[in-house]
Amino acid sequence: MVAQTRENQEGGASAKPRAKKPNAQWKIDGTEPMNHNEEFKLEDSGLNVRRRIEEKYAHEGFDAISDDDLHGRFRWWGLYTQRMPGIDGGRTAKLETRELEDRYFMMRIRLDGGQLSLEQLRTIAGISEEFARGTADVSDRQNIQMHWISVEDVPEIWRRLENVGLSTTEACGDVSRVILGSPLAGVAEDEILDPTPVIETIKERFIGDPDLANLPRKFKTAVSGHPSQDVVHEINDISLIGVEHPEHGPGFDLWVGGGLSTNPKLAVRLGAFVSEEQAPDMWHGVIRIFRDYGYRRLRNRARLKFLMADWGPEKFREVLEQEYLGYALEDGPEPSAPKHSGDHVGTHRQKDGNYYVGLSPMVGRVGGGLLTRLADLMEKYGSARLRTTPYQKLVVLDLPAESVEDFVAEAEELGLSASPSVFRRDTMACTGIEFCKLAIVETKNTAERVVGELEERLADVRDQLPEQLSLYVNGCPNSCARIQTADIGLKGQIIPDGEGGQTSGFQVHLGGGLANYRNDAEGELGRTVRGLKVAADDVSDYVERLIRRYIDTRTEGETFAR
Ligand code: SF4
């Protein structure tokens, strides 16, 4: 009755239902662009800007760069303008991009599977020192990011990277981003299968493919054959997670449609078993579904998770099998719950009898100088392989048993701890206001300060602290540091300071977590606590109170995780 009354108020029972706007899905609505992003992508592929950088912009300089190249296509080669120093977070939303940006770039080097040889490590360290004022951060997507890059230096940086098999191709933009891979690929004693061949095949066949260089939005992939499920698979557009099929042996379980930021959603299982041989074609099928059926009208509804929310896993699997693969996938088993941590911090035995050591740089900051010293140390102790992790950590492989202790002691002196405090171990921070144009607050220095303060203040209860505790810090409502997946997630905001003014602070999210050994449960997104905001200066007070309350009130066997 109420509905009837409202209908009449809005124009009477005879009023025509408002036509639903098309979602600009290429396969249904055609490719006519419905916004400027779609326009510039159709006009000229992001991949083509490389030539202009090499032949024009690197010679003529920053001012010669066209707007669509600078704010659009440069991303296809891992380049974003960085924030102009000194602009406070309160002005972020009020200024145009041109007013916020500096004449320097962040450059993202994609490290598929997080795999680096000693030569590649030295090359990145050298580039950081020579062209990036010594900056280098390990991101939570296993990439390395540098800042202060001038467009004039980009061709030389590419030359050096490509000489050692690295690249920035499709490191950003509406494309297939870096492929997350288990940092222990090929070395773990308990590995179900090595994901490296699948990652390498996808990379060789499809990264830089012009047919896949205009997606509705970014497309994130994760592949792991390790039982700790160490690639945050629930928050990727597509994930392949190692399982043991009772008849076919090792293979993958397929997950689709995860993603954070606005409207965060966990990926869903399609219930399909994917063999190692099938995996690259299956990946190709899923990314083409996204290209062809993904929503392009509104950028904030373009990620694959929105299509998945409307279709559901049954329809998605049916379209994948019938329109893209041409065969039916077999049903497969679910992955077992992880038995131990997927951050791989500490010293562990490899299947060949050597050891790997997971090291914890502070909030992912490494820098060219530190990377050079790490390379020297690895060489001294006979390791030639390094892995980055989706937790902003480093894993050094192939250390002989007799060298491990000395290596760990020397790494500690470099500031790379193999036995970090619980706070340092799983505190992550995004780039934040130091370099990010979208940032509202500072993140990395804040997180580093909080880690130091908590280590000191909670020293009296060190033995009673939870074994792991995730504290993730974001500089804005985007979720580059995955705040919704943390025990304590902090989302940067300008908040009232209690005295009539404003200050940098955070909205608090609590109780998030992906499937892990602590909760033995499926992933769940953290929830905002209504009205709970903390000033940046008060974060340590807040976390200390929370932890002391947990210690005082916990019941037998209760972990800090939800
Ligand atoms: Fe920038 Fe926001 Fe992402 Fe942090 S979360 S890096 S501030 S966009």
From TrEMBL:
Gene3D superfamilies: 3.90.480.20, Sulfite Reductase Hemoprotein, domain 1 (3.30.413.10). The keyword Plastid does not apply. Residues 1-32 are annotated as: Disordered. GO terms for molecular function: 4 iron, 4 sulfur cluster binding; heme binding; metal ion binding; sulfite reductase (ferredoxin) activity. The keyword Zinc does not apply. Residues 101-163, 348-413 form the Nitrite/Sulfite reductase ferredoxin-like domain. It comes from the Bacteria. Keywords: 4Fe-4S, Heme, Iron, Iron-sulfur, Metal-binding, Oxidoreductase, Thioether bond. Residues 173-324, 425-557 form the Nitrite/sulphite reductase 4Fe-4S domain. Its EC number is 1.8.7.1. Belongs to the nitrite and sulfite reductase 4Fe-4S domain family. This is assimilatory sulfite reductase (ferredoxin). It comes from Rothia koreensis.
